[in-house]
Amino acid sequence: MFTVEVxxxxxxxxxxxxxxxxxxxxxxxxxxxxxxxxEFVGRYGELTEAAPxxxxxxxxxxxxxxxxxxxxxxxxxxxxxxxxxxxMQFWAATGRPVVxxxxxxxxxx
Length: 109
Fold this sequence. Notes:
The chain has 109 residues and is of the alpha/beta class. 29% of the residues lie in helices and 17% in strands.
């Protein structure tokens, strides 16, 4: 499995959050692209438009299960994708900022 640790992410790495809307609204990583796993296949074009041409897509969810599924799908499509191990729970636990759409401090559901 293609995984990366939260601590290995750089600030400018492309992050795809596949959690559902309520989870995203409670709090997310600033600058992440949000496409819920339940809508992912239908909204796939949004990812290909937003992702860096030759860059890596870092896929994140709450704990790593849903993002692992999306990562496998992306790899099958020929995209350089990795699963963020531990997800947003580890993201927040390591002190990385979690924000709401308004830019206020958020929480991980």
